[in-house]
Specification:
Rossmann fold, two-stranded antiparallel sheet, 8 strands, binds thiamine diphosphate, 6-stranded parallel β-sheet, binds magnesium ion
Length: 363
């Protein structure tokens, strides 16, 4: 977990540098400070569980094992990137690792997550979907509409709200009638939980429990992680809406040194182990930047490709295209093999449904 959090941090520090050098264009949102959330959750899930997120998305792909060089190349707009440089920072997509984007529309990924969860139930696949979004997205209509249907259909989704306290420059308390997002689960008879998003081990434990809840057919969970981003909203934000002192205070709870201190105190690792890990990660990130720098721009003709996929057309796995390695590609049962055993609860019975503890607390 330390290695992955450190990898995200180093990778994104190099993104900031590359942005300043004009190698990354357009929007670029950094995840620095929030690493414990992606890492704790990913460790608690299976590698074949679906993952969707917003535009602050580089770190999730790294937690799933995406190729750092191809990821950096995508940000640099190079042809060796995951989407041949056509997606860029906000639209990271790595289907080999079940990372289904990267979305720039706030809250846009939330209904899509209900769709993937519906698909896995329909196909009788034992898969959980985890959908990450910010606290500002929880004020979007798509959030409420999706929670309603996901709860009604008992879809296996973890709705994971990363509450970093700001939506661009707006503090959550200024625009929310219910700033504690996890409490909103009660409105939809849904389990709601709050976790310290700076503590990777706490995130891991609660996410494991939430995934078990979903796999047991008990329906979705709304999990809120209390976290903070140390950088501006995007690379072009000077973050004047919050004080330096506030950021300094928050940095004292940085999840990376926190895990190191815990491991040293528990004597499960020594300083030398961390130093070796950090050196290894630094060389991986150096190599990623070298690879992206040396990669060609996509050919002009690429403007006309990949817009539509014909039925049955084979997609070339990105790592196969770029690295020439054989890639295990997700497959799904065909229509013939579908055996749908899941029945939707008749509408009339909803009123008899048992009240969730959250609902009881609120009423
Ligand atoms: C539908 C929509 N409205 C507005 C925007 C502009 N916008 C981009 S990010 C953002 C703030 C989102 O904040 P939050 O959901 O808390 O995520 P965070 O950036 O903090 O990770 C806004 C309003 C957008 N991209 N899409
Ligand atoms: Mg936010």
């Amino acid at each position: 977990m330390y290695r992955t959090m450190y990898l995200i941090r180093r990778f994104e520090e190099r993104c900031a540098q590359a942005y300043g050098q004009g190698k990354i264009n357009g929007f670029c949102h950094l995840y620095i400070g929030q690493e414990a959330v992606a890492v704790g959750v990913t460790e608690a899930l299976r590698p074949t569980d679906y993952l969707l997120t917003a535009y602050r998305d580089h770190g999730y792909a790294l937690t799933r094992g995406a190729d750092p060089g191809m990821l950096m190349a995508e940000l640099f707009g190079r042809g060796t990137g995951y989407s041949k440089g056509k997606g860029g920072s906000m639209h990271i997509y790595d289907i080999e690792h079940y990372v289904l984007g990267g979305y720039g529309i706030v809250g846009g990924q939330i209904p899509l997550a209900a769709g993937t969860a519906f698909a896995s139930r329909y196909r009788n696949e034992d898969r959980v979907t985890v959908c990450f979004f910010g606290e500002a997205a929880a004020n979007q209509g798509s959030f409420h509409e999706t929670l309603n249907m996901a709860s009604k259909w008992k879809l296996p989704v973890i709705f994971l709200c990363e509450n970093n306290r700001y939506g661009m420059g707006t503090a959550m308390e200024r625009v929310s009638a219910v700033p504690a997002v996890h409490k909103r689960g009660g409105a939809y008879q849904m389990r709601g939980e709050l976790v310290d998003g700076r503590d990777v081990l706490a995130v891991f434990e609660v996410a494991k429990d939430c995934a078990a809840h979903c796999r047991a057919g008990k329906g979705p969970v709304l999990l809120e992680a209390d976290t903070y981003r140390y950088r501006g909203h995007s690379m072009s934000d000077a973050a004047t809406y919050r004080s330096k002192k506030e950021v300094e205070e928050e940095r004292k709870a940085d999840p990376i040194p926190k895990l190191r201190a815990w491991a040293l105190a528990a004597k499960v690792a020594a300083d030398a182990d961390f130093d070796a890990l950090e050196a290894e990660v630094k060389s991986i990130v150096d190599e990623a930047v070298r690879f992206a720098d040396a990669s060609p721009e996509p050919a002009v003709e690429e403007v006309w490709t990949d817009h539509l996929v014909e039925p049955g057309e084979r997609d070339v796995p990105p790592r196969e295209r770029v690295r020439g390695v054989k890639v295990a590609w997700p497959t799904h049962p065909s229509g013939q093999e579908l055996k749908v055993t899941w029945e939707l609860e008749p509408a009339g019975r909803a009123a008899e449904g048992e009240e969730s503890p959250e609902m009881r607390k609120l009423s």
